[in-house]
Amino acid sequence: MIGNLLYNNSSGWYGGGIYVTYGRGPNLSNNTIINNWSDSLGGGIYIYDADSAFVTNCIIRDNQSCDGAQIAWDLGLPNLSYCNIQGWFPGEGNIDVDPLFRNQSCGDFHLMSIRCGDSLNSPCIDAGDRDILDSLLSCFHGLGGLRSDMGAYGGSSNGWPVSIEDGDQTPKTLPRFVTLFQNYPNPFNVRTTITFILPQSGSVNLSIYDILGRHVQTLLDGWQQIGPHSITFDAMGLASGAYFYRLRAGERIDSKRMLLLK
After folding, report:
1. All residues at 6 or more sequence positions from 106 whose CB lies less than 8 Å from its CB, including other chains
2. FRET label pair with 111: which of 9, 97, 136, 152, CA 20 to 30 Å apart?
């Protein structure tokens, strides 16, 4: 089970986010399990036959249960490593700190990054298993170039994380509004990636402008499908300095500043 986001679920039994039955000990990697509730044991995860369970690179926090535990188990001890778990848990690389999500109250569980326009860097960046690298690096995916990030957006799964909210098994990771991310890397040398998300399909224009507002290049101009999009901007023939990229999607217009350093 790789690259999943589970939040705002509830269970009248064990395991508010995940319940693992006997003989099905899982390998859980790069999952974000947060704000779930169990009426019994294990607000985030309950595992039966715990010796067979391996959990790594996960963020497990703010889950509620009658026993007050993020994780509950039977038969042995689960193997947790390189996880950010509230209340801490024994295991290599485990931490207990605020993961610094970009906007948890609005359901945005991307990790904060100064290079992506945030005010702080999440402690979960480059804090995962040393043997795993983030397969996609952008403000929309992984952020660590040395080793995997913790949570649903890091690791070696190349897809958009699956989200399960309110227990209805329906993916709900797409925002309700057009979202334009800070380019990555920024500052950049020659090439950088611009990422945005469309809550519905529509006509899109993505263009580059210099500091004086003069049009430099059009990266996209046409119909685009719903979901995430990443575009590479090649500034090989441009001088160093500040530039802006502007996204027009339907009635929504957003722009951000980026810095080219050669």
Report:
1. 175
2. 9
User: Taking residues 160-184, what's their average pLDDT?
Assistant: 60
What is residue 208's predicted lDDT score, i.e. its pLDDT?
97
- What structural domains and CATH numbers belong to the chain? 4-165 (no CATH), 179-260 (2.60.40.1930)
**Burial (CB count within 10 angstroms: exposed 0-12, middle 13-18, buried 19+), residue 262:** exposed
Look at residues 247, 244, 227, 226 and name the one whose alpha carbon lies nearest to residue 235. 244
Q: Determine which helix (DSSP H) or strand (DSSP E) holds 252, and give its type and residue range.
A: strand 252-260
Alpha-carbon Rg of the chain, whole angstroms? Answer: 20
User: Mean pLDDT in the chain?
Assistant: 85
With b for 16 or more beta-carbon neighbours within 10 A and e for fewer, the 210-227 pattern comes to eeeeeeeeebbeeebeee
- Cis peptide leading into residue 171 (ω within 30°): no
Query: So what's the pLDDT on residue 167?
Result: 46
Tens of pLDDT, residue by residue over 26-52, are 678 899 999 998 988 888 888 877 677
